[in-house]
Amino acid sequence: MTSSRSIRNRKWAGGRALWQLAGFARLTRIRSAAVAGDGIFHASLAGAVFFNPEHATTAGRAAAGFAVLLLPYSLIGPLAGVLLDHWRRTRVLAACTVLRAALVTTAAGLLVTTGPSGPMFYLVALVAVSAGRLFNAAASAALPRVVPPAQLVPANSVWTALGTAATVVGGALGLAPRVLGASGDVAAAVAAVAAAAVYALVFLMTLRFDRDALGPTTSMDMSAVAIAAGAWREVVAGARTVAAHRQAAAALVAIGVDRFFYGISTIATLLLYRNYFTDAGLLRAGMAGAAQVVAASIVGAVLAAAITPAITRRWSKRAWITTLYGVAAAVEVAFGLPYRMAPLLVAALLLGLVAQGTQICVQATLQEHVTDDFRGRVFSFYDTLFNATFVAAAAVAAVALPDNGKSYPMLTVIACGYAAVAIGYPIATHHTPTGGTDAAHGRRR
Fold this sequence. Notes:
Elements: H1 4-9, H2 22-50, H3 59-84, H4 89-113, H5 119-146, H6 152-179, H7 184-206, H8 224-229, H9 231-244, H10 246-275, H11 286-314, H12 317-336, H13 341-369, H14 372-400, H15 408-428
C-alpha cells in the first residue's frame, strides 16, 4: 500500500485520481455494499411498519417507531466512538457486519412468526441499525487514512454518489418481493434475508484490508474493560477537541439542525402519502408514492455529489453550506405549502441536494480539523447527533403534526429554521483559530 508521505506528495488533478488509491477503492466498495444491504433492510422495515395495510400508521406510531430504532444508539454512540479510537477499525467493520447479518436474519424470523411488533422485534431491529451507524462512523473516520487531505471533498462526494446508487439498488431489491407477489410481513422477511446475505458478503470484503490499514494510530486493541473504565473521560476529551475547533463545532451544529428539520419533513411526508394523498395519474399515493419521493431526493443527492467539489473549490465549504440552507428555506415555502404531490417531488429533489451537499462539506470539515486519535469519537458524535436530532424531530412531529401530515404552521417553522441557520452559520464561522483559511486549500472560508 502506498505510504502516506508519497500520497501527500502526489499532484491530484481531480476525483478520478482517487481510484488510483487501492485503499480508497477497497474501502469504497465495502461501504457501498454495506449501504446496499442497509437499503434492503430499511425497505423491509418500511414495508412492514409504515406501509403494511394490516398496521395503521399515525404520527405517534411513526414517532415511536423511529425513537425505538434510533434513540438507544444516541445514548451509547459517544461511548462506542471510544472504541473507534482504540480498536483497529478494520476489526470494527468486520464485527459490525457479522453482527448485522445475524440480527437481520433474526428479524426475518420474527417478521414471519410475530410480525413487526413487540419488544423483541424492535430490540433486534434497533441493535442492527445501531451496528450500521457504528460501521458508518468507522468508515468515515478511516477515510483520511486512504485519501490525501486535498481530496477529502471529492472523496466524500464519490461516497455520496455511490452510496446513493447503492441505496437505490438496495431499496429496489427490498421492494422486489412485493413486486413478485409476496405480501405483508412475508415480503418484509424475504427482504431481510437478502440484506443478511449482502452483509455476509461485506464481511468477506473487509478481510482484504491489512489489520493496521485504517488506524487508529495509537493504543490499538485495548481491552474492552480498559476502554470502559476511562470511557467517559475520553468522551469528554473528544468533546473538548470539537469545542476547540470552531469549524468542526459549527459544522456539527449545522448538520444537527438540518437533520432535525429534515426529520420532521420525512415523517410528514410518510403521513401524507399514507393518509392524505390519493393516486393522480402517474403520481401515486401509499408506498409507491413514497418511493417516488425517495427517487426524487436521490436525484438531488447525486446532483449534490456532482457539483459540490467544483463549487467548494470556487466558493469554499462555508459559503456552499450557507447557500444550501438559504435554498432549503425557499424550497419549503415555494414547493411545500401547496401540499400537492407534484411540487412535493420538486421539493424532495432540492432538499435531497441540500442534505447531501451539507453532509459532504460537514464530513470533509470534520476529517480535516480532527486528528486521527480523536476522529472515531468525533464521527460517533456526528452519528449520534444524526440519530438524536431525528428522534427529537419525531417527538415534535408526534405532537405537532396531524395524522395526515398536513400542517401549515409546522412548514413555516421549518422554513424559518433553515433561514436562521443560513444567517447564523457564516457568522459563527467568520473568525477561526487558523486565521480563516481553508486547511485543505489555503483560501478564505
